[in-house]
Write a structure and sequence with these properties.
The chain is built from nine helices and nine strands. It is an alpha/beta fold.
């Protein structure tokens, strides 16, 4: 079920009454409670009615409890969308970004893009996720510029994104990226010193990648499974080294975003389902604009073309 744009109360109620997003114990005919509830405010129903309370009621009272819960959930979604509309205006967008559809129940099987290196035991190299959903993915590299307004903007608009961090420019403030991670950002590997990896030996490449795996596990609390080589440059040793320290996929990119333009990878100058967008943590010192200007351009272009930004980690 897609939740695009701004939905009115009736549309919200129709959505939740369909069962989309409701936990199993609130679905019609459910008999077994779930062990826990997810805590995401805008994507999951409230947990005020526990499973034991609902399941212990007579059938007619249980039906009323379900109706009350779905109505409350509809109101919660409606308030969340209203907040996004206000935030969109505050950040200079003509309309709120489109809502991504529900992520796939199971991640799609990845295959290396044609023209890229592949082989047994090597992580697949991709520039897009295999999906027909009208979603694209924002990924931000290195960690040099740490604009607090970027985190505010993406949090208030509820826009997912993924960071690929290089230690030597991120290490002066990993707290910034811990805050981003708490807000929902995926945090992944972009080496320790940002070298051109094919110029290094296998041992040196492995040190660049695996040491950054250790750094991010220590600093962020999770060991990444995604890795992006600096400059998009890699060889077979790069993929072998990445696989040896837990990397399961190597996402490159289909487009690159700047505050004043998008550099397209295709002649039609359009997003395609599953495209991965590259940008960098940069500011006016190197760009003709700010990080929030860049996000504004990406969101306006995606919305105009009918695309929503989705969470890369749900697909790769």
């Amino acid at each position: 079920m897609r939740r695009y744009g701004t939905l009115g109360g009736a549309a919200m109620l129709a959505l939740v009454c369909s069962g989309a997003g409701l936990p199993p114990y609130l679905l019609p005919g459910a008999e077994e409670p779930v062990s826990h509830l997810a805590s995401t405010v805008d994507a999951n129903p409230p947990g005020a009615l526990g499973a034991r309370t609902v399941l212990g009621l007579p059938r007619h009272l249980r039906a009323q409890a379900v109706a009350d819960a779905t109505a409350a959930y509809a109101k919660r979604l409606e308030r969340a969308e209203a907040r996004r509309v206000v935030a969109a205006k505050r950040w200079g967008l003509r309309r709120a970004p489109l809502r991504a559809p529900a992520p796939p129940a199971h991640k799609p099987k990845l295959a290396t893009e044609p023209g890229h290196l592949s082989g047994p035991g090597l992580p697949p190299v991709v520039v897009r996720a295999p999906t027909e959903d009208k979603v694209v993915f924002l990924t931000i590299d290195d960690g040099a510029d740490k604009d607090p307004k970027l985190l505010d903007m993406l949090r208030e608009l509820d826009v997912p994104y993924s960071s690929f961090l290089t230690d030597y420019v991120a290490r002066d403030d990993y707290g910034y990226f811990r805050r981003a991670h708490r807000n929902g950002s995926g945090v992944h590997n972009h080496t320790v010193t940002h070298p051109e990896l094919p110029r290094l030996s296998y041992r040196q490449q492995r040190a660049e990648i695996c040491r950054q795996q250790d750094n991010l596990e220590r600093e962020i609390g999770e060991r990444p499974v995604l890795f992006r080589p600096p400059y998009g440059a890699y060889d077979r040793d790069t993929l072998r080294a990445a696989a040896s320290c837990g990397v399961t996929a190597v996402p490159l990119w289909a487009e690159e975003a700047f505050p004043d333009r998008i550099e397209w990878g295709r002649a039609d100058r359009k997003f395609h389902p599953g495209d991965i967008i590259l940008t960098h943590f940069r500011g006016p010192g190197e760009w003709d604009g700010t990080m929030t200007d860049m996000v504004r351009r990406v969101l306006a272009t995606a919305t105009e073309q009918g695309f929503a930004l989705a969470r890369l980690e749900d697909y790769l």
